[in-house]
Amino acid sequence: MTTTISAEVTEPAKEPGPFAAFLLRPSTRVALRWLVIVVLTLIAFWPSLISLYDTTRGAGLNGYVWMVPLAGILAAQGVARRPRTELPIHDRQTDVIVGVMGLVFAVLLCGVLMRRYGMWFHLLRFDLLGMWVFVISSAILLFGLRPVGRFLGVWVLMLMVFTLPYQVMVIVLGGSRFAAGAGTLIIAGAATAIAVGRTSRRAWIGAAAAWTIGLAILLVMNFFFDSAPVFLYQIVPSLTAIVLVATAMFLMARRGGSKRPLDRKVEPLAAKQVLSVLPVLVVVTVVLTLVKLPAQGSPPVQQFDALQITGPLAAPAGWESTGAEEYPWVKRLHGKAAMLTRERMVADVGNPRWDKLSRPRTVVVDNVYTNRAFSFFVYPAKVLYDVTATRLSQVRRVDLGYGVTGELISGVDDKLLVTWNMLQWTWRNADRAQRVLVFTVDNHEDDAPFPQPSGALLSTLNTLVTVLFRGNSAVDDTNPEFKDAELLTVFGRGLVAAQLQPLGLAP
């Protein structure tokens, strides 16, 4: 008997081609996933980025936001060079649940909360906070909770794109260019600490060194380049400090060793099932593109190059100014060149249409001028006063001549126990902008209380919290009384004419 032995011959596995091998590299897969996040973020938040560019070009304080992602990238490089300690375990169900919840929250921030605070848009910038939530939620879906948690310090740093804490910080520090730069140094110190913080001692040394170098650069700029744009004060000292300190501490730690910046290999990605979540990201991106930024709603600002903006205003015909008072604290809001001036103006004769006893009426005229015109979009006029106990009406527009459009507002003040009407408008010349506010109250006595300028930052924050939990109805007057609409319209037209007629301008 003959026995036949057969053996199966297996072909060796084919090696992937160069392009396939490139796509299978962990570093390539990481880069491609981040590319997806970046592209979708740009599509979803392009109007927000354009608005931020306009803010920066207009010398607004929110220009610091451009520095935050750059500081975050530099800090992330320091974290990425450290050995990975988290286990390569991923519960994709948990990743998807948390990531989708975050995306829904991003839509609510932009679609609901941002619109509720439309008047405060440039102060709060909830759209940028929504962008942060969108990015971190996308990263959780594409990388998993554990890798995202490894960079927790970087994500907390990136949360500084929410502009309110920075705005408050700059106001507390004085509101100047120097204050704006000092505010960003806090971000720079935190970024440096994260980048070099293998130990808590190194983190504190890095932060202190960054603050010292940044402050030195800031002082030089303030002494020799005091008229430089606000954006340069925010960017140059901070980024220079981060780069110099992080580079120096990296070289000191690698004395006698390899100086390669990326000497740790990229570990394989454990979150492999990502194609199923891409449609979710695309759908949320499309939804966010449908959300419109709040419209300013303010009338156009007329420019009169020959207009002298220096403080007290010339009283209109038939009225007399009885004194002026200055409030320099307004510099904290509108920059070091700003000033708030209050004047009381009294009519020469009484008018029975404005007072049943024909008593001469008194109006209070506040005007704020600044060379940082964009700050008027950031801080509404109500920021100057304590309106926590005041319900305000919607705006009515009135024509004041010369192309100037005013806005009438009525307020019921439960603290002063009066109802006041206010007329406001903004104009500018080639260098400065000026906001004019004219007040009347329904108490016609000589000692009648008017809203007082107070720089009420804390009351403003209280108003924001009230609107958050109770809605705009808590601070709105839905049944306003414009008792002095005629008086304010006539006075406003006269006040505008008193400033522009001497310039040879025609109504």
Walk me through the topology.
Elements: H1 18-24, H2 26-44, H3 46-57, H4 67-80, H5 92-116, H6 121-124, H7 126-143, H8 145-150, H9 152-158, H10 163-173, H11 177-196, H12 200-224, H13 230-253, H14 278-289, E1 302-303, E2 319-327, H15 331-334, E3 339-347, E4 362-370, H16 375-378, E5 390-392, E6 396-399, E7 405-413, E8 418-428, E9 433-441, H17 457-470, H18 485-500
Parallel strand pairs: 1-8
Antiparallel strand pairs: 2-3, 3-4, 4-9, 5-7, 6-7, 7-8, 8-9
Helix pairs in contact: 2-7, 2-14, 4-9, 4-11, 4-13, 5-7, 5-14, 10-11, 11-12, 11-13, 12-13
**What would you call the shape?**
elongated
Tell me the Rg in angstroms.
30 Å
Strand content: 5-15%
The CA-CA distance between the termini, in Å, is 123 Å
Instruction: Let me know the largest β-sheet.
Output: 9 strands, mixed
Structural class: alpha+beta
Task: Kindly give the count of domains.
Answer: 2
Assign a percent range to the helix content. 40-55%
Total count of strands = 9
Q: Helical segment tally? A: 18
**Overall pLDDT confidence:** 85
Unreliable residue stretches = none
The string of secondary-structure elements, in order, is HHHHHHHHHHHHHHEEHEEHEEEEEHH
Transmembrane segments: 32-53, 59-76, 96-114, 126-145, 152-172, 178-196, 203-225, 231-253, 274-293
Keywords: Membrane, Transmembrane, Transmembrane helix
